[in-house]
Amino acid sequence: MGRGETGRRETERGARVLAIFTAAAIAASGWQPTGAQLVNAGRFAEALAAFEGALQTDPKSVAANNGAGVALDLLGRYAEAQPYFTAAIKASRTPLEKALAERAMAIGFGFASNCAAAEKPEKRAFDFYVETLDFPNAGDVADETGRLCLDAGDFDRAAEWYQKGHDEGELEPKISLARTDLWEFRLAHAKGRIAARRGKIAEARKQAQKARAILNRGRIPDQEEFFPYLEGYIAFYASDYAEALNDLNRASGADSFIQCLTGQTYEALGDRAHAIEFYRKAAAATAHSVPAAYAQPFARRKLASWNLIEQ
């Protein structure tokens, strides 16, 4: 996650954090990532057993504690996951490793839709990056917190954190015009979604127009794929489901949040078969990421309510 990278993507941020954190811990401990491979395969119960087995040998393994927490979150056992994340934080050997562990804990609280709890470890990670003058990562953590809170329904906290993300990100020394555009685009995108959730559709569309104007400058072409997601999001909360579906079909089909929102859109249109198809995709998410923190639990609850899976 270097400072010169202009294409850091919100939909991948949580997964990347986990990957970096786990890789660093594995490299330090020599532990082989059998559990991580099982998580990626969607075999969460087996992954949990593998991580717990590793902890029998090394109770202070950062990677194994973190992995057990991840597996439990993906199994829907959120309260059981948190002690493992706490153990990973305590066992961290460097401030950076601790910050990454804090972010993994926060994403776990996101799976439980608990913005207030997620905010605490995210704030500690945010403060670390600010203190070390790593403003791009400070901005990323703030945006991550904003997204967790928005998806949990805490719009005021979401707005506050997204603004912090913008402000800290733009403190990057000798920031390029492209990087400035990126932070401006992210903020407009977030404000559009927050307004849509608040039912302020005119304001949401105004923010979407601002986001479009930023993209039209041509300095951040890799962000173009996130604009249909914003349009679809606004259309969904405006109850314009046909337009939402048209927009979401142009967004990233691999994003579990978009899969879930597409399922919600089909459901609103009365097309249960397609809703089930997309809910199944979202429910099958294996990433311990910010998008999956909302999408995987929501989709699993929906499918369980239709007696299609066991919750």
Précis, in short:
The chain is an all-alpha fold.
Describe this structure in words.
With 311 residues, this protein is mainly alpha-helical. It has 4 domains: 14-112, Tetratricopeptide repeat domain (Serine Threonine Protein Phosphatase 5, Tetratricopeptide repeat, Alpha Horseshoe); 113-175, Serine Threonine Protein Phosphatase 5, Tetratricopeptide repeat, CATH 1.25.40; 193-251, no CATH class; 254-311, no CATH class. Helix content is 74%, strand content 0%. The chain has 16 helices and no strands. The chain has helices spanning 10-29, 34-40, 44-57, 62-74, 78-91, 95-111, 115-131, 135-151, 155-169, 177-197, 201-215, 227-237, 241-248, 256-268, 272-283, 290-305. Helix 3 packs antiparallel against helix 4 (62-74), helix 14 (256-268) packs antiparallel against helix 15 (272-283) and helix 15 (272-283) crosses helix 16. The model is unreliable at 1-16 and 26-31 (pLDDT under 50).
